[in-house]
User: What shape does this take?
Amino acid sequence: MVHCGVLTMMYISVLLLLVSSTSASHYYGGSMTFTPKGHNPDGSLRVDVRYKEAYSYCSTQHVWFCSGGNCGSDIRSVSAQVDSYSNFSYNWCQMETLRTLSIATDSPFQLR
Ligand SMILES: *[C@@H]1O[C@H](CO)[C@@H](O)[C@H](O)[C@H]1NC(C)=O
Assistant: This one.
């Protein structure tokens, strides 16, 4: 689980987190990058979240979802396979997701 706060994002413009374990098997790990993009016309905060994650199969993508707190809402989400490798005994697939969120207030939220 990853705890996030918009206030932290405002002062540290890029926060890199290594995600060491999740419930998903076939998941090797990855990173998440937050970039505040200022305010939306309605005053809410706009934040880009970029995930780079590696899996043993391209079809088993871990979907992060907000599990508590001030979740905000998705403006858009785009995923793409950026790299892959396989041989007889090993599969590896790198996926990248760019998600733009709209967050109403400065309270914390959680991703899982
Ligand atoms: C397959 O690739 C992995 C990762 O690079 C490597 O450790 C392993 O030795 C390779 N196996 C074969 C059979 O080439």
In short: Residues 87-90 surround 2-acetamido-2-deoxy-beta-D-glucopyranose (CB under 6 Å). The longest strand covers residues 73-86. The two ends are 5 Å apart (CA to CA).
